[in-house]
Amino acid sequence: MRLAFQSLLVFLALSWCVFLAAGNRIAGLLGDRIGGSIQRIAKGKVSDPVVFTYERAREFLLLSTVFVILSLVLWLLAKFLQQRRCKYAWAYNCLAIFAALNVFILPALNTALFWGAMFTGNRTANYTQFQFKRILADEQKAPRSALLLGSSQTQAQIDENQLNALIGTNLWTTELHFPGSCGLDVLLAYEQLRETRADYLLIYISEGYFFNGLHTEAPPFFARLQHIPLYRSFGLGRELVSEPFRNGYFGQVIPLLRAREATTHRVLGVALGLIGQETHDAALEVNLEKRAESVAQLFEDGPFADVQKRAFAEFIRRASSDGRKVILFEGQLNPMLSKHLPPSLRNETKTFLREIAAGHSNVELIAESEQPRQEPGDYSDLTHVTAAGQERYTRWLADYLRKKLTPVNTRHD
């Protein structure tokens, strides 16, 4: 066994030497040969196949090195306990294996190689897609970059692949929405993106961001212990020790838990993880008009509306301190749903967004009147537009960005 570990360590050392000396050249050759295949598989998510190839090779070597070193440590520990004839050797070995798994998963969580291995097709977990694309966002080669943030409405309105096909040479866009996001969720997700390359942050915003109570989609993945005082300043109390937030805290302390959803889907199959969602979808009212009446009752100007607004304002403040331009789109819901909502919610949303834009020089608000108007027939449900509606909106956005942002993109800082 000792000889095997020695051989592996020598092989890894030689591999690192080759990579450091000729990694760029090898990646260039591979990128030229298989770049087209990478682009097809990635479906527009990769802007430079050469950089993609180089980074995945680096990640593979990194994770291989960590794995071999941890395996060596576990073997040495097991051998030591055996020599000492330790009575509880099994317990110590189990604890050591658990610790080693967490040590290994910590760097793995920051590699596209790991998250790419967790893909399960069109039903891949949202968090897996978020992390995979977050890492790729730093590898694009356009002079400026943009992130699409917020709820699934942003993702439904804007097709990142179409947008990149139209203006990707000047501004590369990465879609990093998180379903069900409200104001607090945007802030929680953004905390994971502060080191990610981005000159612009684009968010399509409607009443659901502020008047849908306290959603708990993002906290299980993004809540952090050090931010509890900040969450309390928004007006949260007992909610901070609820299960969604606790899951986020445990995931921070035990890295393996952050990959629980992705690994469960990969090992046990995605169907198991989607039972709850499929049950929910099956129970939905088929008639959109009736569904609109019931969904409208969930909207309220309650105590959590202020929480969502304060959290969103904090997100704007942090984006400003990071030197990022935020473009807010004064979005709409399916008119079929909007007609059942109190007009005050719409007015309050618009007033809040205009106050945000007026108070921050880094924020640009695109009024509803400046955007393509969408009728009930443009929607597939109460919040998401159809593919045709998305294509029209994306083409409008591409024209807007070309007119407004291209001069900035070509300026030398």
Describe the structure.
The model is unreliable at 407-413 (pLDDT under 50). The protein has a 5-stranded parallel beta sheet with strand order 2-1-3-4-5. The chain starts with a helix and ends with a helix. The chain is globular. It has helices at 2-42, 49-84, 89-108, 112-117, 126-136, 152-157, 160-167, 183-191, 219-222, 228-233, 243-253, 255-258, 260-268, 270-273, 275-282, 288-296, 303-321, 335-338, 343-359, 387-409; strands at residues 144-149, 171-175, 200-205, 325-330, 363-366. By secondary structure, it is an alpha/beta fold. The longest helix has 41 residues, at 2-42. Helix 1 (2-42) runs antiparallel to helix 2 (49-84), helix 2 runs antiparallel to helix 3 and helix 7 crosses helix 20 (387-409). It folds into 2 domains: 2-108, no CATH class; 123-409, Rossmann fold, CATH 3.40.50.1110. It is built from 20 helices and 5 strands.
